[in-house]
Amino acid sequence: MVTQELLDYVQQQKNAGVTDAVIRQNLQSSGWQPTDIEAVLGGYVPDAPPATATPPTAMSREAATTAVAQMGKFKASWRLFTQSLRLLKKDKEVMWFPVLSAITVSLAAVAFVVALTFSGFVTEQDGETVITNEIGFYSLLFVAYVIIYFLATFFRVGLTAIVCERINGGDIGFKAGFGRASAITGKIFVWSLLAGTVGIILQFIANRSKGLGKLAAWLLGAAWNIVTMFIAPTLLLDNVSVWKSVKNSANVFKQTWGETIIMNVSLYVVSRLVFMFYVIAYMVGLIALFSVGAGTITYIVATAIFFIVVLFTSIVFSSLTEIFKVALYSYARYGIIAEDFSPELILGAIREDKK
Asked: Can you tell me the distance from the alpha carbon of 126 to that of 331, in angstroms, rounded to the nearest whole number?
Protein backbone atom coordinates (compact mmCIF):
# COMPACT_ATOMS: atom_id res chain seq x y z
CA MET A 1 0.00 0.00 0.00
CA VAL A 2 1.20 3.50 -0.83
CA THR A 3 1.26 5.39 2.48
CA GLN A 4 1.93 8.99 3.41
CA GLU A 5 5.15 7.89 5.09
CA LEU A 6 6.33 6.34 1.84
CA LEU A 7 5.43 9.49 -0.10
CA ASP A 8 7.17 11.75 2.44
CA TYR A 9 10.28 9.58 2.51
CA VAL A 10 10.67 9.54 -1.28
CA GLN A 11 10.11 13.30 -1.50
CA GLN A 12 12.68 13.94 1.24
CA GLN A 13 15.26 11.74 -0.46
CA LYS A 14 14.72 13.41 -3.84
CA ASN A 15 15.06 16.84 -2.23
CA ALA A 16 18.40 15.67 -0.82
CA GLY A 17 19.55 14.63 -4.31
CA VAL A 18 19.45 10.86 -3.72
CA THR A 19 19.05 8.87 -6.95
CA ASP A 20 15.97 6.74 -7.70
CA ALA A 21 18.15 3.62 -7.73
CA VAL A 22 19.36 4.23 -4.18
CA ILE A 23 15.84 5.10 -2.98
CA ARG A 24 14.49 1.93 -4.60
CA GLN A 25 17.18 -0.22 -2.99
CA ASN A 26 16.61 1.24 0.49
CA LEU A 27 12.85 0.79 0.31
CA GLN A 28 13.09 -2.79 -0.96
CA SER A 29 15.49 -3.69 1.85
CA SER A 30 12.97 -2.19 4.32
CA GLY A 31 10.17 -4.43 3.07
CA TRP A 32 8.17 -2.14 0.78
CA GLN A 33 6.41 -3.70 -2.21
CA PRO A 34 8.08 -3.06 -5.61
CA THR A 35 4.75 -1.98 -7.14
CA ASP A 36 4.27 0.68 -4.44
CA ILE A 37 7.86 1.87 -4.81
CA GLU A 38 7.57 2.25 -8.59
CA ALA A 39 4.23 4.02 -8.25
CA VAL A 40 5.66 6.67 -5.95
CA LEU A 41 8.86 7.07 -7.96
CA GLY A 42 6.70 7.52 -11.03
CA GLY A 43 4.85 10.48 -9.53
CA TYR A 44 1.91 8.85 -7.74
CA VAL A 45 -0.58 11.39 -6.34
CA PRO A 46 -3.06 10.08 -3.73
CA ASP A 47 -6.76 10.92 -3.99
CA ALA A 48 -7.01 11.09 -0.21
CA PRO A 49 -4.55 11.01 2.68
CA PRO A 50 -3.45 7.35 2.90
CA ALA A 51 -2.97 5.44 6.11
CA THR A 52 0.48 5.40 7.61
CA ALA A 53 2.62 2.33 8.08
CA THR A 54 6.08 1.74 9.44
CA PRO A 55 8.66 -0.18 7.42
CA PRO A 56 9.73 -3.37 9.16
CA THR A 57 12.96 -3.18 11.19
CA ALA A 58 15.44 -5.83 12.17
CA MET A 59 14.41 -5.68 15.83
CA SER A 60 11.67 -4.16 17.93
CA ARG A 61 12.09 -0.91 19.83
CA GLU A 62 11.49 -2.77 23.09
CA ALA A 63 14.26 -5.26 22.35
CA ALA A 64 16.61 -2.44 21.33
CA THR A 65 15.85 -0.46 24.48
CA THR A 66 16.49 -3.53 26.62
CA ALA A 67 19.78 -4.22 24.83
CA VAL A 68 20.98 -0.64 25.35
CA ALA A 69 19.88 -0.69 29.01
CA GLN A 70 21.87 -3.88 29.61
CA MET A 71 24.86 -2.41 27.79
CA GLY A 72 24.80 0.88 29.69
CA LYS A 73 24.47 4.41 28.31
CA PHE A 74 28.18 5.22 28.28
CA LYS A 75 29.21 1.93 26.70
CA ALA A 76 26.50 2.37 24.07
CA SER A 77 27.70 5.91 23.39
CA TRP A 78 31.28 4.67 23.06
CA ARG A 79 30.16 2.10 20.48
CA LEU A 80 28.34 4.86 18.60
CA PHE A 81 31.62 6.80 18.67
CA THR A 82 33.59 3.91 17.17
CA GLN A 83 30.91 3.31 14.53
CA SER A 84 30.94 6.99 13.61
CA LEU A 85 34.71 6.65 13.21
CA ARG A 86 34.19 3.70 10.87
CA LEU A 87 31.90 5.78 8.68
CA LEU A 88 34.42 8.64 8.73
CA LYS A 89 37.08 6.29 7.37
CA LYS A 90 34.86 5.63 4.35
CA ASP A 91 34.28 9.34 3.68
CA LYS A 92 37.47 11.07 4.77
CA GLU A 93 36.65 14.02 2.51
CA VAL A 94 34.06 15.20 5.05
CA MET A 95 36.96 16.50 7.15
CA TRP A 96 37.52 19.26 4.59
CA PHE A 97 34.28 20.88 5.71
CA PRO A 98 35.34 21.59 9.32
CA VAL A 99 38.73 22.72 7.98
CA LEU A 100 37.16 25.25 5.61
CA SER A 101 34.65 26.27 8.26
CA ALA A 102 37.41 27.00 10.78
CA ILE A 103 39.44 28.98 8.23
CA THR A 104 36.58 31.10 6.89
CA VAL A 105 34.99 31.73 10.29
CA SER A 106 38.38 32.77 11.70
CA LEU A 107 38.90 35.18 8.80
CA ALA A 108 35.41 36.63 9.35
CA ALA A 109 36.12 37.07 13.07
CA VAL A 110 39.43 38.81 12.35
CA ALA A 111 37.71 41.10 9.83
CA PHE A 112 35.11 42.01 12.46
CA VAL A 113 37.79 42.85 15.06
CA VAL A 114 39.68 44.99 12.54
CA ALA A 115 36.48 46.79 11.47
CA LEU A 116 35.48 47.35 15.09
CA THR A 117 38.93 48.66 15.96
CA PHE A 118 38.84 51.35 13.26
CA SER A 119 35.11 52.12 13.56
CA GLY A 120 35.30 54.16 16.76
CA PHE A 121 32.18 52.37 18.04
CA VAL A 122 34.04 51.25 21.18
CA THR A 123 36.74 52.82 23.31
CA GLU A 124 38.81 52.07 26.41
CA GLN A 125 37.98 54.05 29.55
CA ASP A 126 39.68 53.30 32.87
CA GLY A 127 40.67 49.86 31.65
CA GLU A 128 37.14 48.94 30.53
CA THR A 129 35.69 48.65 27.03
CA VAL A 130 32.87 51.15 26.54
CA ILE A 131 30.43 51.23 23.60
CA THR A 132 30.31 54.79 22.25
CA ASN A 133 27.90 54.16 19.38
CA GLU A 134 25.36 51.43 20.15
CA ILE A 135 23.59 51.51 16.77
CA GLY A 136 26.86 51.22 14.90
CA PHE A 137 28.28 48.59 17.25
CA TYR A 138 25.23 46.30 17.19
CA SER A 139 24.79 46.75 13.43
CA LEU A 140 28.38 45.68 12.84
CA LEU A 141 28.01 42.81 15.31
CA PHE A 142 24.81 41.65 13.57
CA VAL A 143 26.58 41.55 10.21
CA ALA A 144 29.41 39.54 11.79
CA TYR A 145 26.94 37.11 13.37
CA VAL A 146 25.11 36.55 10.09
CA ILE A 147 28.32 35.93 8.15
CA ILE A 148 29.74 33.57 10.77
CA TYR A 149 26.48 31.63 11.16
CA PHE A 150 26.19 31.36 7.38
CA LEU A 151 29.74 30.03 6.91
CA ALA A 152 29.56 27.57 9.81
CA THR A 153 26.14 26.24 8.77
CA PHE A 154 27.02 26.04 5.07
CA PHE A 155 29.95 23.72 5.70
CA ARG A 156 28.00 21.66 8.22
CA VAL A 157 25.30 21.14 5.58
CA GLY A 158 27.94 20.02 3.07
CA LEU A 159 29.27 17.45 5.53
CA THR A 160 25.71 16.34 6.30
CA ALA A 161 25.00 15.78 2.60
CA ILE A 162 27.91 13.34 2.25
CA VAL A 163 27.01 11.46 5.44
CA CYS A 164 23.32 11.23 4.48
CA GLU A 165 24.26 9.82 1.09
CA ARG A 166 26.45 7.19 2.75
CA ILE A 167 23.64 6.29 5.19
CA ASN A 168 21.33 5.84 2.20
CA GLY A 169 23.78 3.50 0.49
CA GLY A 170 25.32 6.04 -1.87
CA ASP A 171 28.75 7.60 -2.13
CA ILE A 172 29.43 11.21 -3.11
CA GLY A 173 32.53 13.35 -2.79
CA PHE A 174 33.40 16.79 -1.50
CA LYS A 175 32.32 18.55 -4.69
CA ALA A 176 28.82 17.02 -4.59
CA GLY A 177 28.44 17.81 -0.87
CA PHE A 178 29.51 21.39 -1.51
CA GLY A 179 27.02 21.56 -4.39
CA ARG A 180 24.11 20.41 -2.27
CA ALA A 181 24.92 23.02 0.34
CA SER A 182 25.13 25.63 -2.44
CA ALA A 183 21.69 24.58 -3.67
CA ILE A 184 20.07 25.79 -0.43
CA THR A 185 22.19 28.90 0.19
CA GLY A 186 19.01 31.00 0.35
CA LYS A 187 17.61 28.85 3.12
CA ILE A 188 20.93 28.90 4.98
CA PHE A 189 21.02 32.69 4.68
CA VAL A 190 17.51 33.04 6.12
CA TRP A 191 18.55 30.78 8.99
CA SER A 192 21.64 32.94 9.51
CA LEU A 193 19.47 36.06 9.74
CA LEU A 194 17.30 34.36 12.37
CA ALA A 195 20.29 33.07 14.34
CA GLY A 196 22.04 36.44 14.07
CA THR A 197 18.95 38.22 15.40
CA VAL A 198 18.76 35.86 18.37
CA GLY A 199 22.48 36.37 18.98
CA ILE A 200 22.16 40.17 18.95
CA ILE A 201 19.21 40.12 21.34
CA LEU A 202 21.07 37.89 23.80
CA GLN A 203 24.23 39.99 23.52
CA PHE A 204 22.24 43.17 24.12
CA ILE A 205 20.64 41.66 27.22
CA ALA A 206 24.04 40.51 28.52
CA ASN A 207 25.64 43.92 27.93
CA ARG A 208 22.80 45.78 29.64
CA SER A 209 22.53 43.42 32.61
CA LYS A 210 24.50 42.43 35.65
CA GLY A 211 24.64 39.23 37.65
CA LEU A 212 21.37 37.35 37.13
CA GLY A 213 20.68 39.16 33.86
CA LYS A 214 23.94 37.93 32.35
CA LEU A 215 23.25 34.43 33.67
CA ALA A 216 19.76 34.50 32.13
CA ALA A 217 21.21 35.56 28.76
CA TRP A 218 23.77 32.76 28.96
CA LEU A 219 21.09 30.17 29.81
CA LEU A 220 18.88 31.36 26.95
CA GLY A 221 21.84 31.14 24.58
CA ALA A 222 22.60 27.60 25.75
CA ALA A 223 18.95 26.62 25.25
CA TRP A 224 18.99 28.08 21.73
CA ASN A 225 22.14 26.13 20.86
CA ILE A 226 20.51 22.94 22.13
CA VAL A 227 17.25 23.25 20.19
CA THR A 228 19.16 24.09 16.99
CA MET A 229 21.71 21.31 17.41
CA PHE A 230 20.27 19.39 14.43
CA ILE A 231 19.71 22.43 12.21
CA ALA A 232 22.11 21.29 9.45
CA PRO A 233 20.29 18.04 8.57
CA THR A 234 16.84 19.58 8.92
CA LEU A 235 17.74 22.48 6.60
CA LEU A 236 19.09 20.01 4.04
CA LEU A 237 16.53 17.22 4.26
CA ASP A 238 13.22 18.75 5.35
CA ASN A 239 11.31 20.62 2.68
CA VAL A 240 9.90 23.13 5.19
CA SER A 241 10.42 26.74 6.27
CA VAL A 242 13.41 27.77 8.35
CA TRP A 243 11.24 28.25 11.44
CA LYS A 244 9.76 24.77 10.97
CA SER A 245 13.31 23.46 10.57
CA VAL A 246 14.14 24.88 14.00
CA LYS A 247 11.08 23.12 15.45
CA ASN A 248 12.08 19.84 13.78
CA SER A 249 15.58 20.17 15.19
CA ALA A 250 14.14 20.74 18.67
CA ASN A 251 11.87 17.70 18.31
CA VAL A 252 14.78 15.45 17.35
CA PHE A 253 16.78 16.68 20.34
CA LYS A 254 13.76 15.97 22.54
CA GLN A 255 13.75 12.38 21.27
CA THR A 256 17.51 11.87 21.57
CA TRP A 257 18.58 14.25 24.36
CA GLY A 258 20.08 11.56 26.58
CA GLU A 259 22.28 10.01 23.92
CA THR A 260 23.15 13.38 22.39
CA ILE A 261 24.37 14.75 25.73
CA ILE A 262 26.19 11.56 26.72
CA MET A 263 27.82 11.28 23.29
CA ASN A 264 28.99 14.88 23.44
CA VAL A 265 30.35 14.31 26.94
CA SER A 266 32.02 11.10 25.78
CA LEU A 267 33.63 12.88 22.85
CA TYR A 268 34.76 15.68 25.14
CA VAL A 269 36.32 13.28 27.64
CA VAL A 270 38.02 11.20 24.94
CA SER A 271 39.32 14.30 23.16
CA ARG A 272 40.67 15.75 26.43
CA LEU A 273 42.46 12.46 27.19
CA VAL A 274 43.92 12.36 23.69
CA PHE A 275 45.11 15.97 23.91
CA MET A 276 46.58 15.29 27.37
CA PHE A 277 48.51 12.39 25.89
CA TYR A 278 49.78 14.67 23.12
CA VAL A 279 50.94 17.28 25.63
CA ILE A 280 52.74 14.68 27.77
CA ALA A 281 54.36 13.15 24.69
CA TYR A 282 55.40 16.62 23.50
CA MET A 283 56.94 17.55 26.86
CA VAL A 284 58.77 14.21 27.10
CA GLY A 285 60.02 14.75 23.56
CA LEU A 286 61.32 18.22 24.38
CA ILE A 287 63.13 16.87 27.44
CA ALA A 288 64.68 14.11 25.32
CA LEU A 289 65.76 16.62 22.68
CA PHE A 290 67.27 18.86 25.35
CA SER A 291 69.18 15.93 26.86
CA VAL A 292 70.85 15.12 23.53
CA GLY A 293 71.62 18.77 22.78
CA ALA A 294 69.29 19.18 19.78
CA GLY A 295 69.40 22.44 17.82
CA THR A 296 66.79 25.18 17.52
CA ILE A 297 65.48 23.86 14.18
CA THR A 298 64.70 20.52 15.78
CA TYR A 299 62.63 22.22 18.50
CA ILE A 300 60.74 24.21 15.88
CA VAL A 301 59.99 21.08 13.83
CA ALA A 302 58.84 19.17 16.93
CA THR A 303 56.53 22.04 17.94
CA ALA A 304 55.11 22.32 14.44
CA ILE A 305 54.37 18.58 14.38
CA PHE A 306 52.68 18.85 17.77
CA PHE A 307 50.32 21.62 16.62
CA ILE A 308 49.55 19.85 13.33
CA VAL A 309 48.61 16.65 15.17
CA VAL A 310 46.44 18.57 17.63
CA LEU A 311 44.70 20.43 14.80
CA PHE A 312 44.09 17.22 12.84
CA THR A 313 42.64 15.52 15.91
CA SER A 314 40.30 18.47 16.53
CA ILE A 315 39.06 18.16 12.95
CA VAL A 316 38.44 14.43 13.38
CA PHE A 317 36.42 14.92 16.58
CA SER A 318 34.42 17.74 14.99
CA SER A 319 33.59 15.48 12.02
CA LEU A 320 32.60 12.59 14.32
CA THR A 321 30.21 14.83 16.24
CA GLU A 322 28.40 15.82 13.05
CA ILE A 323 28.29 12.21 11.78
CA PHE A 324 26.71 11.08 15.04
CA LYS A 325 24.08 13.81 14.81
CA VAL A 326 23.17 12.82 11.25
CA ALA A 327 22.89 9.14 12.22
CA LEU A 328 20.44 9.96 15.03
CA TYR A 329 18.53 12.44 12.90
CA SER A 330 18.13 10.02 9.98
CA TYR A 331 16.39 7.46 12.13
CA ALA A 332 14.46 9.86 14.37
CA ARG A 333 12.94 11.60 11.34
CA TYR A 334 12.93 9.02 8.53
CA GLY A 335 13.47 5.58 10.04
CA ILE A 336 16.79 4.98 8.24
CA ILE A 337 19.58 3.08 10.00
CA ALA A 338 23.03 3.25 8.41
CA GLU A 339 24.67 -0.10 7.75
CA ASP A 340 27.72 1.05 9.74
CA PHE A 341 25.64 1.47 12.91
CA SER A 342 24.21 -1.20 15.19
CA PRO A 343 20.38 -1.16 14.89
CA GLU A 344 19.91 -1.63 18.63
CA LEU A 345 22.02 1.46 19.37
CA ILE A 346 20.05 3.71 17.03
CA LEU A 347 16.64 2.24 17.86
CA GLY A 348 17.40 2.32 21.57
CA ALA A 349 18.54 5.92 21.36
CA ILE A 350 15.27 7.29 19.95
CA ARG A 351 12.26 7.96 22.12
CA GLU A 352 8.82 7.67 20.65
CA ASP A 353 6.73 10.82 20.68
CA LYS A 354 3.84 10.49 23.11
CA LYS A 355 0.87 12.30 21.69
From this structure: 55
